[in-house]
């Protein structure tokens, strides 16, 4: 679950960059056999650009996937957001779930 707001008033041009304030709240992955306490974080990518990929802080040993963190992103009205929820492990991280949002459908 996430909420978002744009810092620019009025209607933005399709390729004009503006800041998007995204609040990453929580996740409910469909994985039923996960450990009762996991270390997790969320990764948000704008248009697949590494320079516009941000992560929440890691939640250590939590039984709930809850972050309540704000991430500031530079987007256009046509941007596409990819959100990934990861479980942190010693050798490699495990993808728990994904979501995608086309901002043209939301803004």
Automatic annotation (TrEMBL):
Pfam families, per the entry: C2
Residue ranges of domain C2 in the record: 1-107
InterPro entries noted in UniProt: C2_dom, C2_domain_sf
Signal peptide as annotated in the record: none
Protein name: WWP2 isoform 18
Species this protein is from: Pan troglodytes
């Amino acid at each position: 679950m996430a909420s978002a707001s744009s810092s620019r008033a009025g209607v933005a041009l399709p390729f004009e960059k503006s800041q998007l304030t995204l609040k990453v709240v929580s996740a409910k992955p469909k994985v039923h056999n996960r450990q009762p306490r996991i270390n997790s974080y969320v990764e948000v990518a704008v248009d697949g650009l590494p320079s516009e990929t941000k992560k929440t802080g890691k939640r250590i040993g939590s039984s709930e996937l809850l972050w309540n963190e704000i991430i500031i992103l530079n987007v256009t009205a046509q941007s596409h957001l990819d959100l990934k929820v990861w479980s942190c492990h010693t050798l490699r991280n495990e993808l728990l779930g994904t979501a995608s949002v086309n901002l043209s459908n939301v803004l």
